[in-house]
Design goal:
Elements (H helix, E strand, L loop, with lengths): L2 H9 L2 H14 L8 H26 L3 H28 L4 H12 L3 H13 L8 H7 L2 H14 L13 H9 L2 H30 L1 H23 L5 H22 L6 H12 L5 H9 L5 H31 L2
Helix pairs in contact: 1-15, 2-11, 3-10, 3-11, 4-5, 4-7, 4-8, 4-12, 5-8, 5-15, 6-13, 6-15, 11-15, 12-13, 12-15, 13-15
Length: about 325
């Protein structure tokens, strides 16, 4: 299937169409909404289902040198991508050092929902992938945040603590490690790893048959949130900053594609690894930025990650990453 055919198929998938419904309703100022309690439940459900399935996959395949190599590659990508993003933002926009660092952290980290959308695309295409990549997603959350903090501190002229910033990296690591999405993802992964196929058999109706419908409802809510962010946040962004939200994922995807040449992943696994690198966080990293860089503007980093990059990846990016992966793997 060509990249164009993949893009059309993805654009017409229920996931993308539900996101478009929420986005359009929000931009039109409809009163459609998902109750906050329901939205939180959907987020917890997705973390639980994703983590559990990944743990079961590791229980089936076992831990080997390839898994460790892929995790190391993920950590390095997460640490390096913010350096590139920060440099490009400082050269092409008028964003402050703190705002550029905060934005770069989002692009070095990952969007688990983009990852899930990519897995569903692969399932639709009957393209197998390594289930343990969910563990790689988990370890790619933190390095980008630490890189961004180093950039912000160095540019500020030294290690002095700014008002509202944690006293040390240990405090920040604790906050990140205890973030609800990270705890649920890693905890479910460990449970799936321990229980294996026996555990999957017990919960399969909940994490299997319901999963696709749940993610469609979650993406409806994401569309509503993105629409509100676009209405309010685009006014604060220049065109070069908006362009960054479109080309930075492609740069990250190219770096991940180069790394995948040496990792020995399947075509499906390569597509997921590229997707992880190309995605931008809008859950864990915003929470960390509110704590670590309180002077950074959410109207900038959330609008770029959720209002620009997320729709781009959902509609066009994922098909391109799958096509690129199949091209690399021949």
């Amino acid at each position: 299937m060509s990249g164009f055919d993949l893009a059309i198929a993805n654009l017409l998938s229920p996931m993308v169409l539900f996101f478009a419904l929420g986005l359009g309703a929000s931009l039109a100022r409809s009163d459609l909404s998902v109750p906050e309690a329901v939205a939180k439940f959907l987020a917890l459900y997705l973390m639980m289902a994703i983590g559990f399935k990944g743990g079961v996959a590791v229980a089936r395949s076992g831990i080997d040198a390839r898994l460790l190599g892929v995790m190391l590659a993920g950590i390095l990508l997460s640490a390096v991508i913010p350096l590139i993003g920060f440099t490009l933002l400082r050269l092409s926009t008028r964003l402050s050092v703190v705002d550029a660092a905060a934005v770069s952290a989002h692009y070095g980290s990952i969007s688990i929902v983009t990852f899930v959308a990519a897995t569903q695309t692969l399932i639709t295409l009957d393209l197998p992938f390594e289930g343990y990549l969910v563990a790689v997603a988990a370890v790619m959350e933190t390095p980008a945040i630490l890189t961004a903090l180093v950039l912000a501190r160095r540019a500020a002229g030294g290690p002095e603590r700014r008002q509202g910033e944690p006293q040390d990296f240990g405090s920040l690591i604790r906050e990140i490690g205890l973030n609800g999405s990270v705890v649920m993802l890693l905890g479910s992964f460990v449970i799936g790893w321990i229980t294996g196929d026996r555990g999957m058999k017990a919960v399969e109706p909940f994490v299997g048959q319901l999963f696709f419908g749940m993610i469609c409802l979650f993406l409806l809510d994401m569309g509503l949130i993105a629409g509100r962010g676009m209405r309010e946040g685009l006014k604060a962004l220049s065109w070069p900053a908006i362009a960054f939200g479109l080309y930075m994922p492609l740069i990250s995807a190219a770096l991940a594609a180069l790394a995948c040449l040496a990792l020995g992943l399947s075509a499906g696994g390569t597509a997921l690894m590229i997707t992880l690198a190309a995605s931008a966080s809008y859950i864990a990293v915003p929470a960390a930025m509110r704590l670590a860089l309180p002077e950074a503007k959410p109207s900038i980093y959330l609008t770029l990650s959720l209002g620009v990059t997320f729709p781009f990846n959902l509609a066009l990016g994922i098909p391109f990453y799958v096509w690129l992966a199949t091209l690399i793997k021949g």
